[in-house]
Amino acid sequence: MAIPTDGTNGLSLYGLKEELENNAYVAVIPETYNTEISFLTLALENDINQNSTTRPNTDSWDNGVYEEGAEIKMSDYFGYDHDATVAFVNDKAVSKTLTTSATHSINFVDTDDTFNFTGTTAYTISFWVKAGWSSSLNTNIHMLIGQKEFASYQLSDMIKIMYNESNNRLRIQYGNKTTASDAWYKLAEWLFHSNSGAYAAGYAAAGLGSTYWSASNRGYVNSDDYTMITFTKSGTNAASAMKLYWNANAAGAAPIQTNFGSGSPAMSTTNNRTWSLGSNGVSQGEVKTGNSSATVYNDLSIFQKELSATEVTELYNSGTPMDVTTHSAANKLKGYWKWEGNGNATVSNDDFNINGQSEIVNK
Q1: Structural domains in the chain?
Q2: Which helix (H) or strand (E) holds 39?
Q3: pLDDT one-digit tens code per residue, 327-339
Q4: DSSP-assigned beta bridge partners for residue 277
């Protein structure tokens, strides 16, 4: 609710306090207008909402916090709306260049262990993608990878999402490798071009038909030609714990599952991890993935929770990217990047660095 701008209800310190605390400025009882309340008291109890189109004199506030001794006039509060919110905007996306090397990458280093998920962590990774590669590449399209910083082996503390173009399969894989002979990983893959047996659910979910996924055959997309890819994982340490959704369509149990090695070596919860979008990771030189035109990514979100089918449907939002901070599972949201002008996170302390010819583009 906005503070009255015409003075009808009598602008007062008590009214301001009631509005800030209870959203009830006009409910103020007139005889309480003279209650002894200072601007400093108001400032200590409440921050100023920077989303309001008009705010108290910004010279008196530092990032919404009152500076003691600064002079504020009553008129500075006219039109102030403590409950104002910024309209959700989704105009931009990030394009992963076809140029090779870490100087053209999209990545960040997680130094505070926010995304140090292990084999027994439940989580969900979701993003919108517009395929830019052509068919018949006989290679892998790496979409997202997290791995130990400065890793000698790609599999070190790794979580990876990739499209195996030569076999028309989407894969999620996690695991760890510490020596040349010591490796442990779990992977799940879905194949899309066979409408039979264990593959039928993936065939129905993607809408690719018998032709492989590419820029010329994107399957089921929204009005902007993006597909929302969502992988979920339960707390069970097994390939069977992972699920795939194409938009809001469940692809069924992974028809290809691999559980390599026993439960050791475990993934570290303290090693820094580098996360790369649209490439195979810093330790592998951030090689280009795909050809033809660049692949474009929109709204990346990471939950520390296995989203249910209903929650994935909510996230898909009938094909319109939503403000994920308003999702019903937002309390489990660990990372959220909208790409509206930069790689800054909406949720998380980790901002993506967009390097070289990788760039923000119109969605």
Answers
A1: 13-77 (no CATH), 92-362 (2.60.120.200)
A2: helix 39-45
A3: 999 999 999 999 9
A4: 144
